[in-house]
Amino acid sequence: KKVYIMEALDIKKIETEELPATSSVLYAGAHHLGNYCKQDFTTFIQKRYETKDPRATLEEGKKVTECALEFFRKLRKDCNKEFTDHWKCIDYNNHHFGLCRKTQAVYDDCVFKNFNLTSDQPIHLTGAE
């Protein structure tokens, strides 16, 4: 039987600003967020699986959160109306993307123009043939 001894964590090392977003906001922005923060997400996940110790990935986790905050701040600045219309549609329609293709198209276009990012949703999610 292994016994693990946890050292006390310094709360200052783990404190970070939280992302103040509802599930609809995260759901609507997830594909672009994934592309925007791809490097930070990949580094975090790789280290998390390699170490199998969440304490070892605190700094990487902070970078993921910081990147997400940066993304949503820029989104609010450059595509606020388009994104708000889209996440509200997602929220109103119980997170069914298929019912929000019109707002998604406008939002995707804004993100492409301002961030040069595509959503990279699989075809079966976008409704494309």
Automatic annotation (TrEMBL):
GO BP terms, alphabetized: mitochondrial electron transport, NADH to ubiquinone
UniProt subcellular location: Mitochondrion
Residue ranges crossing the lipid bilayer per the database entry: none
Chief place of localization: mitochondrion
Entry annotated with the keyword Repeat: yes
Keywords: Disulfide bond, Electron transport, Mitochondrion, Repeat, Respiratory chain, Transport, Ubiquinone
Residue ranges occupied by any CHCH domain in the UniProt entry: 79-113
The keyword tRNA-binding is annotated on this UniProt entry: no
Cellular component, GO, one term: mitochondrion
Taxonomic superkingdom: Eukaryota
Function: Accessory subunit of the mitochondrial membrane respiratory chain NADH dehydrogenase (Complex I), that is believed not to be involved in catalysis. Complex I functions in the transfer of electrons from NADH to the respiratory chain. The immediate electron acceptor for the enzyme is believed to be ubiquinone.
Name assigned to this protein: NADH dehydrogenase [ubiquinone] 1 alpha subcomplex subunit 8
Species lineage: Eukaryota, Metazoa, Cnidaria, Hydrozoa, Hydroidolina
